[in-house]
């Protein structure tokens, strides 16, 4: 960042240098945990897997952490369904800086997380199409970048309210439909914090994607994202081939969708 050759105000440059070092040390704390009933285990310490059928990686958003209320419903929904390999990224130290700093760190955080994931997949011989990365807010863009790290070969990336501020449609570190074989995006927070632009293979716009969503009229980012997560958690818990077809119908009615041609023939929903 601060190039010594350009340093006209030494004390300022020293400050910027310190800032860069501090950011580096915060970035280096980004890591991935494996959820076990006994607690969260650092990914590099997981040596035996019961199954390599599927891997879910959840990435929290701005101001979050792996135990933040905004992502607990998702964690709980996947574990309640008996998914074996549920991973949760924690980039909390960087996510809790000011927004522009967190946003600028998206590429670096993604690269650190992608390498940890790659090492885990290789060590356990898990193929890329079995991997599903789910990201919320800034985490949705991180999920997209993780997908790009694997050259779009992961099975699925899901973006929950990709963050809007300081992203343009051209930002190369933002979520796009080339992030994975299948990319689904749910928009519920435009124009507050969430983007409205189609970013996936399929984009869903509950209540036209506009904030505030019913039940979230008091603008509260945390409550809003909690509702979204609960809605998404419901869509995965209630498989829509359940006996309760009426409930399924209601979910579909509330989720108007924009479709792009699918890149692949096989659509894996799990
Ligand atoms: C962060 O990690 C990188 C790569 O491992 C290392 O080169 C760097 O010294 C670390 N920075 C800090 C501040 O720990
Ligand atoms: C993605 O593609 C690049 C360029 O072909 C290659 O160097 C890199 O190893 C690929 N990454 C993965 C994770 O396969």
Automatic annotation (TrEMBL):
<dbReference type="GO" id="GO:0017171">
    <property type="term" value="F:serine hydrolase activity"/>
</dbReference>
<feature type="signal peptide">
    <location>
        <begin position="1"/>
        <end position="20"/>
    </location>
</feature>
<dbReference type="InterPro" id="IPR013818">
    <property type="entry name" value="Lipase"/>
</dbReference>
<dbReference type="GO" id="GO:0016042">
    <property type="term" value="P:lipid catabolic process"/>
</dbReference>
<comment type="similarity">
    <text>Belongs to the AB hydrolase superfamily. Lipase family.</text>
</comment>
<dbReference type="Pfam" id="PF00151">
    <property type="entry name" value="Lipase"/>
</dbReference>
<dbReference type="GO" id="GO:0005615">
    <property type="term" value="C:extracellular space"/>
</dbReference>
<dbReference type="InterPro" id="IPR000734">
    <property type="entry name" value="TAG_lipase"/>
</dbReference>
<keyword id="KW-0732">Signal</keyword>
<dbReference type="GO" id="GO:0016298">
    <property type="term" value="F:lipase activity"/>
</dbReference>
<keyword id="KW-0964">Secreted</keyword>
<dbReference type="InterPro" id="IPR029058">
    <property type="entry name" value="AB_hydrolase_fold"/>
</dbReference>
<feature type="domain" description="Lipase">
    <location>
        <begin position="49"/>
        <end position="221"/>
    </location>
</feature>
<protein>
    <submittedName>
        <fullName>Uncharacterized protein, isoform D</fullName>
    </submittedName>
</protein>
């Amino acid at each position: 960042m601060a190039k010594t050759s350009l340093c006209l105000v030494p004390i300022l440059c020293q400050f910027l240098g310190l800032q860069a070092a501090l950011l580096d040390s915060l970035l280096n704390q980004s890591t991935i945990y494996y959820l076990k009933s006994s607690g969260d285990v650092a990914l590099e310490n997981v040596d035996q897997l019961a199954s390599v059928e599927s891997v879910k990686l959840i990435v929290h958003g701005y101001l979050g952490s792996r135990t933040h209320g905004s992502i607990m419903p998702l964690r709980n929904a996947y574990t309640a369904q008996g998914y074996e390999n549920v991973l949760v990224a924690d980039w909390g130290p960087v996510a809790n800086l000011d927004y522009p700093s967190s946003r600028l760190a998206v590429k670096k955080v993604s690269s650190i997380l992608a390498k940890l994931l790659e090492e885990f997949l290789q060590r356990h011989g898990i193929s890329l199409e079995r991997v599903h990365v789910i990201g919320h807010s800034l985490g949705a863009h991180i999920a997209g970048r993780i997908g790009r790290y694997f050259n779009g070969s992961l099975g699925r990336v899901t973006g929950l309210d990709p963050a809007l501020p300081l992203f343009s449609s051209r930002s190369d570190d933002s979520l796009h439909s080339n992030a994975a074989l299948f990319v689904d995006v749910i928009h519920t927070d435009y124009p507050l914090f969430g983007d409205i632009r189609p970013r996936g293979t399929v984009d869903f716009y509950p209540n036209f994607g506009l904030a505030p969503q019913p039940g979230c009229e008091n603008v509260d980012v945390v409550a809003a994202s909690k509702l979204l997560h609960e809605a998404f958690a419901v869509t995965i818990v209630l498989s829509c081939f359940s006996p309760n077809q009426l409930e399924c119908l209601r979910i579909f009615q509330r989720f108007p969708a924009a479709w792009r041609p699918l890149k692949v023939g096989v659509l894996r929903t799990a």
